[in-house]
Structure formats: C-alpha cells, structure tokens
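Before relying on records like the one below, remember that each one covers exactly one chain. Contacts with other chains, cofactors or solvent are not represented anywhere in the record.
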Amino acid sequence: MSKLTREGRLEVMRQFVDKYCFPTLERKGKDYDGEKRGDHFEWAVIPERGVDRYVVLWVHLSKQLFALFTWMRTRELASEPLESRIKDIINYCLILVSMLVEDGVIKLDLLDVPTCFGCARLRMLDVKEPDEWEWTDGKWLCPDCFDGSRDDPG
C-alpha cells in the first residue's frame, strides 16, 4: 500500500470509527447497561475499595493497550485481531470523553452538545423528555423552561 495523504489518512480514520467503533458502542452498550440510561461501568463499581467507574474503565482499556504493546514488540497477537484491539481502545476513549462531559470535567463549550438556553440542562442526558424540548429563536429550551406560552425562558 502506498503512503496516505493527509486527507486519505483522515478518511481512513473516519471510516474506521463509523464502520467499526460506533456500531460496537451501540451493540455492546445495550448489553452492559441493561435498563440503565447509559451509565458505563456502574455495574462494576466498588466504592468501599476505591474502585469507581474510571478505575473500571482503566482496567478494560489497559488490557487493550497492553495487547497493542505486545503487537508492537512482536508483530503478533494470539487472540483478537489487531483492528479489534484498536477499535476497543478508541471506544474506551470515547466512553471516557462521555463520562468526563457528564461529570463536568470537560466543559461543554468545547463540544457541540445541545443545552437548554434557560438552565443549561443537557438535552442528550434528558432521557425522560428529549422529544419535548423546543427549538425557539435559534435556542434549545427544555420542558421546564418552555411552557409553550412564552418565547423567553424564566
């Protein structure tokens, strides 16, 4: 294979994430979360031992990173294919980003996430009423801030 251009490299990355990463996140997320609303790794948290969901994520991520390091040293893997390991590393990093956003560690002004103009509630985290939000004058308003009778929140 010839060297990729910058644009070609970006296209390979985009297609890899679209074809392999997101479908796996959607499929496995349902298996892991059960009836929950997407609380990644909550099932394995042991607070009395200092094991929070970030520690659980690290355990899963580090397994994949160590396998990748093995491949880099030996150019061989005994179990899962290399692309599967890379997909899992990317997915765990994407899950980490979502956890950091949810916990307020990453500020939302860095991401294009719909928030309520009135109270700054996240639309993507509003699992009860995401379809009841209103788009008014170029701004999102949650059901608490929009009652249908006024244009401004408050």
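The radius of gyration is 20 Å.
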